[in-house]
Amino acid sequence: MNTARLGKIGIWSMELRFGDRAQAAEAAGELEELGFGTLWFPGGIGGDVTGDFDRLLAATKRATVATGIINVWKHEPREIADWWKGLTTDKQSRVLLGLGVSHSPLIGEAWGHPLAVMRKYLDELHKDGVPGDSLCLAALGPKMLELSRDRTAGAHPYLVTPEHSRRAREILGPGKLLAPEQGVVLENDPERARTLARAALDHYRQLPNYTNSWRRLGFSEDDIKYTSDTLIDGLFAWGTPDKIAERVKAHLAAGADHVCLQVVTGAGLDVGAARPAWRALAAALL
User: How many separate domains does the chain show?
Assistant: First the structure.
């Protein structure tokens, strides 16, 4: 894949996968017309991820469709490879397969060493004909970033800061994709904005991959334990669309090629609640 096709700004959305299907298809088409280069959707819980790819590819004409991420414990490499090889060349060029190793508390006894598991998965995809430049990895720590550099198009970090983008670029070097996710809350009231962000972050605070990443970025044990304002303000951008744009520019200045924005609305999987925010962000950023 030509990673320039991703554009500078994308949308990362649970609503596009799990919300009302008709509304999601209509919204995907609008997001493309607004100018967002890539539509990202989650795949961590498994399910019909290739079917959801097909829906979003059908709803769009030009945008890249990417996973953030396919859980390698939930899908066999052959399943993903057979689906990818069945796509037309045009659709293959619009697909970015983001892969991740998930988290030991969620996988349980089957859990294996993350790097070894990911290397094996990549070996199988390569053997089945999926090129590395159609893949990226959910990489937070240095070793997974190195693997993303060496075996795929690059990295898709989640719940990170612009400082992480700076460190990741140092490891990835030039020419490799760096596409961080950035949570955003279009809310000017600090208490309301942070309340929404805390609710969105609560699940992730239980997962060691993320807490270890935040410690490496300098957040304290108390920041993590009590979900401090410092942690919230570091991981989420909130306020006006122009304030959100400042955070996006910080990631890009630190070395990111593409920033995908995940809007926190507090309305669950309601596609309709997210669409006004997406339009406001497009007006400020695109």
Answer: 1
Q: What is the CATH number of the domain that holds 95?
A: 3.20.20.30
Residue 37 phi/psi, 5-degree rounding, is: -80, -25
| pLDDT of res. 11 | 98
Please say if the pLDDT value at position 85 is more than 90: yes
Residue 49 lies in domain: 3-285
- Predicted confidence (pLDDT) at residue 274 exceeds the cutoff of 70: yes
For the chain, give the percent of residues with pLDDT over 90: 91
User: Which strands make up the sheet holding 154-155, listed edge to edge?
Assistant: 177-178, 154-155, 135-137, 95-100, 64-71, 38-43, 9-12, 259-263, 181-185, 236-238
User: Cα(44)–Cα(265) distance, rounded to whole angstroms?
Assistant: 21
- CB contact at 8 A, 178 and 154: yes
Specify the pLDDT at position 111: 60
Q: Which residue has the tokens 């990673």?
A: 3
Q: Write the CB contacts of 139 (distance below 8 Å, at least 6 apart in sequence).
A: 145, 147, 148, 155, 156, 157, 168
Report the C-alpha gap between 30 and 37 in whole angstroms. 12
Which phi and psi angles does 140 have, rounded to 5°? -110, -50
Cβ–Cβ < 8 Å for 238, 262 = no
> Residue 107: pLDDT band by 50, 70, 90 thresholds?
low
Burial classification of residue 89, based on how many CB atoms lie within 10 Å of its CB (0-12 exposed, 13-18 middle, 19 or more buried) = exposed
- Contact status, residue 24 vs residue 54, Cβ threshold 8 Å: no
Flag whether the pTM goes above 0.85.
Answer: yes
H-helix or E-strand spanning residue 98: strand 95-100
